[in-house]
Automatic annotation (TrEMBL):
The keyword Zinc applies. It comes from Vibrio tritonius. Its cofactor is Zn(2+). Belongs to the peptidase M14 family. This is M14 family metallocarboxypeptidase. Keywords: Hydrolase, Metal-binding, Zinc. InterPro entries: AstE_AspA_cat, Peptidase_M14. It comes from the Bacteria. Residues 30-306 form the Peptidase M14 domain.
Length: 306
C-alpha cells in the first residue's frame, strides 16, 4: 500500500505561483522517447489508416507532433468510434493499448464503424512519465472552453472537425500506485489544500458518465476485460477511489462538469478505462491486452444495439 504523502514544493496551504510551477518542472526529466517508442508505431499504421497531424505542442513542436489515425474509406452511413490514449502520458497501456487495437483488431470492426484514434494525446507527459503537462496542468481536467492545456485544446479541435459526431468514445487510462505516492500529494500542494490519503484499487475498472451511465455497456466492457485481468473490488464503503460502485468494477463521474476527456463528445456510448499496471498479477503486455479487450467489449456490445 502506498504510504508517501508529501510534496516538497511550496508552502503548506499556499497555492503555487509561477516560481513553484517552474521549480516543479525543473524536477522533471525525459525518461523515454516518444519519437522512438510511439511515433514509429503510429507511422506504421499509415499503411492501413489515414495518418494526419492535428497539432504540435509548443514546448517543442518538432519533438511533440500530435497524430491521429482515421479509417481510410470513411462512410457517413456508419457510426463513428473515437479512441483516445495517453491523455495522461504516464499511463503507458493507454497509449500502447490503443496502438495494439489499431494494429490487430480494428480491421474486424471497420465494416460496421468509422474509427478515429488519437493514441498519445500528451507526448510530453509520456516522455517524463507524468500526469501533468509542463505547466503543472492536468489535461484530463482541462477539456473545457478556452482550455489552457494545449493537449486538451488540440484534441477538442480535432473532435470538432470530425466528419460526423462519435457514437462511441473509449478513453484509455491507468490508475497507478504513483497516483497516491506522487501525483495526488503534488495536486494538494499545487492547490494549497490538505492532502487526504486514499487507496489505489487493485484491478481494472471503468468510469461511466453520470449524465449517461449506459450500465449494460459498462458491464460488457468489464466482462470482456475479465478474461484478461482481474476486476477491482469495491472497498469497505462499496466505493472505488471515493465513488460509489454502481456495478461490478463500474463507477460514474460527471464527465463534462469535471472537464474530462470522456466528456468531449455527446456520444451515446462512452467509457473511461482504468487498468492497474502495478499489480504483481499482470505484465505490461497484459495491461495492453486489457485495453484492447475493453475496446472490443465496447464495440461488440454496441453492435448488438445497432
Amino acid at each position: 500500500m502506498p504510504t508517501q504523502s508529501h510534496c516538497s514544493i511550496g508552502q503548506p496551504g499556499v497555492p503555487w505561483g509561477d516560481n513553484e510551477r517552474q521549480q516543479w518542472r525543473a524536477q522533471t526529466r525525459i525518461q523515454r522517447e516518444y519519437q522512438v517508442e510511439v511515433v514509429p508505431k503510429i507511422q506504421a499504421l499509415a499503411e492501413h489508416f489515414e495518418l494526419s497531424q492535428y497539432g504540435a505542442l509548443s514546448y517543442d513542436a518538432n519533438r511533440y507532433p500530435l497524430f491521429c489515425l482515421k479509417t481510410r474509406l470513411w462512410d457517413a452511413s456508419k457510426p463513428t468510434v473515437l479512441i483516445t490514449g495517453g491523455v495522461h502520458g504516464y499511463e503507458t497501456s493507454g497509449v500502447h493499448g490503443a496502438l495494439q487495437f489499431l494494429a490487430t483488431e480494428a480491421k474486424h470492426y471497420e465494416a460496421n464503424f468509422n474509427i478515429v484514434a488519437a493514441p498519445c494525446v500528451s507526448p510530453w507527459g509520456y516522455e517524463t512519465i507524468n500526469r501533468w503537462n509542463p505547466n503543472a496542468l492536468d489535461p484530463n481536467r482541462n477539456f473545457v472552453a478556452n482550455s489552457k492545456a494545449e493537449e486538451s485544446a488540440a484534441l477538442m479541435n480535432l473532435v470538432a472537425q470530425l466528419p460526423q459526431p462519435a457514437l462511441v468514445h473509449i478513453d484509455l487510462h491507468e490508475t497507478t500506485d504513483t497516483d497516491e505516492t506522487e501525483f495526488r500529494p503534488a495536486l494538494a500542494a499545487r492547490d494549497g489544500i490538505d492532502y487526504a490519503p486514499g487507496t489505489i484499487p487493485d484491478g481494472f475498472y471503468t468510469v461511466g458518465d453520470e449524465q449517461n451511465p449506459q450500465i449494460e455497456f459498462q458491464k460488457a466492457i468489464i466482462e470482456s476485460v475479465r478474461k484478461v485481468t482481474h476486476i477491482a473490488p469495491a472497498d469497505e464503503n462499496n466505493q472505488i477511489i471515493g465513488s460509489p460502485v454502481v456495478a461490478d468494477g463500474v463507477i460514474l463521474y460527471d464527465m463534462k462538469k469535471l472537464g474530462l476527456c470522456g466528456g468531449i463528445t455527446s456520444c451515446q456510448y462512452g467509457s473511461t478505462t482504468e487498468v492497474y499496471p502495478d499489480s504483481d498479477k499482470v505484465t505490461d503486455q497484459e495491461c495492453n491486452d486489457a485495453q484492447v479487450a475493453a475496446v472490443k467489449g465496447a464495440l461488440d456490445y454496441v453492435l448488438t444495439q445497432l
